[in-house]
Amino acid sequence: MKNTRLFFLLSCLFLSGMLKAQTFTTFTTTEGLSDDFIYGGIAVDQNNHIWAGTSYGVSKFDGASWTNYFMADGLADDFIRCIAVDASNNVWVGTDVGVSRFNGTSWTTYTTADGLVDNTVYAIAGDFTGAVWFGTMYGVSKFDGTEWFTYNTSNGFPSDLISTIFVDCSGKKYFGTLDSGFIIYDGSTYEVIDTADGLADQSVKAIMKDQSGYILAGTLYGISRFDGASYQWQNDITSTDGLYHNVIMDIDVTSTGVIWVSTFVDYLVDGGMSWFNGSTWTSYNTADGMSDPQIIKTAVDYDDNIWVATGTGITKISDYTGSPLTATKEMPVVYPNPSAGAIYFSKTAASVTVFDMSGRCVFSCNNAMSADLSELNPGYYTLKLTEENGNIVNRKICIAK
Fold first, then answer.
1. What number does CATH give the domain 23-319?
2. Which of 49, 53, 200, 386 is most exposed, with the fewest beta carbons within 10 Å of its own?
């Protein structure tokens, strides 16, 4: 009996510790944000710095303080609709009057006069070649650094209403639409996936791939899971399975394969975050520490912290054992990411270990400023870099060929 009681007590202490490890931190204008309405979402750069697109400018967090950028600094507009970081660590923001790129020093704006298909940009994503893709209500624009290209109904798209863009490690592009499902583009041909194929709804607000390679399409009626290799659908994921709501705003996956889903139902003014650990769903709302029920977008940093853009600030959700290294300007940069194989470090790494998504070590080296990962299969990996001072930095990297 004593052993049973001791086991029960230890179990309670363990579970209590696990619960306490989940922390919520809120950032608002009080902490330094330019505005509390994070309409444009969040992006993470290769320095593990957080970039937030607000309704009044762009805010950057380096782990210690916030820096704000406005039209006076070179932004096309102060109202930000979307934000992303490309393979060269440039920050791109979409506005109603064009897109602006920050190269670390200055902002440059591109509009329809330069080749953008429309000035109002709702989605941005970069690919491993360095090209950047922009979603508008008139189709998709691609900028390769020199030329602009347009993809819309005039050359094969089923719809021009682009709501989201995702690029996987094989280089395929996924364009979610508001009314025609989503489009898979391999660089030469288009494929349309819609309700006739088994998609839960024609309106797709988020696309992501999970650790198993399934395409996760977030709709107004939950998440549809699609195996792009076998073209087989899995069961949809809905509130019945444990999602906070069925209206999906965004989907992210951590380096360990945990799926995070943001939901918000505007007419109920209710939203929350749900995460899946491989067997069960857990949800959080304002009662748990979320700053606001209006969940807009999410981003995962290199320490697997979840950054949530809301209507009244940013909520950082930390779920870890131990303390992740706080982002600082001195943290080593791992670039490019995605990469075709060659990875470089901004400072010498005492040791580098790369793990596949099953946790198997697939590469290691010591005292290096680069790593040749060209022999690895395309996909996501976790890179563990140990600095000479003993600090350990983990990075989710994408090998794309």
1. 2.130.10.10
2. 386
Give the Cα separation of 297 and 314 in Å (integer).
10
CA distance 64 to 76: 27
User: How much of the chain exceeds pLDDT 90, in percent?
Assistant: 69
- Token pair recorded at residue 41: 């979402």
Q: How far apart are CA 24 and CA 361, in angstroms?
A: 32
Q: Which of 109, 131, 126 is nearest to 45 (CA)?
A: 126
Q: By C-alpha distance, which of 102, 132, 107, 135 is closest to 120?
A: 135
DSSP state, 32? T
Give the Cα separation of 143 and 161 in Å (integer): 19
Residue 2 sits at φ, ψ, to 5 deg, of: -60, -40
CA–CA distance, 55 with 35 (Å, rounded to integer): 7
What is 261-296 written as a DSSP string? EEEEEGGGTEEEEEEE-SS-EEEE-TTTT-S-S-EE
Structurally, at CATH architecture level, domain 334-399 sits in Sandwich (2.60)
Tens digits of residue pLDDT in 330-370: 667 788 877 888 898 888 999 999 988 777 889 999 999 99
Distance from C-alpha of 95 to C-alpha of 73, rounded to nearest angstrom: 15
Cα 221 to Cα 86, 264, 285: the distances in Å are: 31, 12, 19
What is the residue extent of each domain of the chain?
23-319, 334-399
DSSP state of 339: B
**What token pair was written down for 111?**
């509009």
Separation of first and last alpha carbons in the chain: 59
Mean pLDDT, to the nearest integer, of 109-135? Answer: 97
Predicted model pTM:
0.85
**Angle 17-22-28 from CA coordinates, rounded to 5°:** 145
